[in-house]
Design brief:
The chain is mainly alpha-helical. The chain is 71% helix and 8% strand.
Length: 97
Amino acid sequence: MLDWLVAVILFWVASAIYFGGLQRDVKGGTGFRQFVGLLLTYAIFLVVWGVLYKTIGVETAKGVLVASAVAALLLPIEVRLGFMLVGARVVRSAAGH
């Protein structure tokens, strides 16, 4: 059960870096639809992490590390899919404000 805590924390840290640090904006949809898109992205991330974790090895540290690294690297695809399901798009924001 503690292994899943790694995935939960990793998602929120990685998504904050993705949206804030890489300057991504969500276009389209209402605020509620964007919130649902984030929750769908969270679910997709956990499914990807869980499948990788079960495939690589449940009782090994290698399983946690590889599943976390691959799921984090796939975050841009997971984000686009999650927001696409509610009719929103994730785009690169304008440089400088």
